[in-house]
């Protein structure tokens, strides 16, 4: 899974949460949430993470705040810290499905594919429209060699996808290539390239799969699926 470069030298999450009930608390929290969203939209992930840390310290029991903060930590490659923040919410059986989805993403980034599979399954069991959870489930299954099951998860994700579809299209195409469905893999990657002609990973994977296709599948097969690591989609907080 593609992860962002570390953006902060240090990031502390310990510390007491201010007592609730002070006048203006909700207004401050709303202002912090807006500031974090604005920073993220402008591409300033470092500033967004800093603001989300402040918001989390004020509302450490809020599941959505924890999800947003953990997601920002994951993107900054503070993976163990992200897992620690989110674990209580991800393990709440009746809790927010998004917590299980984000926890699956964190487990993928840590290389814990079986755990990622388990939490993605929990997420889609709670929310059958969670396309991100289906995508993570597909990556987890594919990484364990369960290509047909992964294909079904990727297709489910793509059917419901909102936002940038390139990562899930890319990963579905790689999955199909690993099953020797090269014509369909090429067709999907060509469509992805049409949508996003500047995406280097798509161009590279298309070139690889076309080579396999043109050699009538007699070229030596790679030990991993063509293109290497799966592509992770940008996550909104």
Mean pLDDT, all residues: 84
Give the biggest sheet: none
- Shape, principal axes of CA atoms: globular
Radius of gyration: 19 Å
Question: In terms of structural class, how would the helical and strand content be classed?
Answer: mainly alpha
Helical fraction:
55-70%
Distance between the termini: 19 Å
Number of helices: 11
Question: Using DSSP, what is the number of strands?
Answer: 0
Task: Explain what the structure shows.
The protein is mostly helical and 237 residues long. It has a domain at 163-232. It has helices at residues 25-41, 45-58, 63-75, 79-90, 97-110, 113-126, 131-143, 147-160, 166-178, 182-195, 200-214. Helix 7 (131-143) packs parallel to helix 9 (166-178) and helix 10 (182-195) packs antiparallel against helix 11 (200-214).
Compile the SSE list and pairings:
Layout: H1 25-41, H2 45-58, H3 63-75, H4 79-90, H5 97-110, H6 113-126, H7 131-143, H8 147-160, H9 166-178, H10 182-195, H11 200-214
Quick structural gist:
The protein has 237 residues and is an all-alpha fold. 65% of the residues lie in helices and 0% in strands. The longest helix is centred in the N-terminal third of the chain and has 17 residues, at 25-41.
List keywords for this structure.
0% strand, mainly alpha, disordered N terminus, 237 residues, 11 helices
């Amino acid at each position: 899974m593609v992860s962002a470069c570390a953006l902060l030298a240090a990031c502390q999450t310990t510390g007491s949460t201010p007592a609730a009930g002070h006048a203006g608390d909700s207004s401050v929290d709303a202002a912090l949430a807006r500031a974090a969203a604005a920073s993220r939209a402008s591409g300033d992930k470092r500033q967004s993470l800093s603001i989300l840390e402040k918001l989390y310290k004020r509302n450490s029991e809020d599941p959505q705040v924890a999800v947003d903060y953990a997601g920002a930590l994951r993107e900054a490659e503070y993976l163990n810290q992200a897992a620690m923040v989110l674990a209580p919410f991800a393990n709440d059986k009746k809790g927010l499905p998004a917590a299980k989805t984000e926890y699956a993403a964190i487990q993928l980034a840590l290389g814990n594919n079986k755990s990622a599979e388990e939490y993605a399954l929990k997420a889609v069991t709670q929310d059958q429209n969670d396309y991100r959870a289906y995508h993570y489930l597909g990556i987890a299954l594919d990484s364990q060699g369960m290509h047909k099951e992964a294909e079904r998860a990727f297709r489910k994700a793509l059917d419901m996808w909102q936002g940038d579809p390139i990562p899930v299209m890319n990963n579905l195409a790689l999955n199909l290539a690993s099953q020797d469905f090269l014509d369909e893999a090429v067709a999907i990657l060509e469509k992805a390239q049409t949508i996003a002609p500047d995406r280097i990973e798509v161009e590279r994977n298309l070139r690889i799969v076309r080579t396999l296709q043109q050699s009538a599948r007699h070229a030596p097969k790679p030990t991993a699926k063509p293109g290497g690591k799966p592509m992770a989609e940008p996550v909104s907080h």
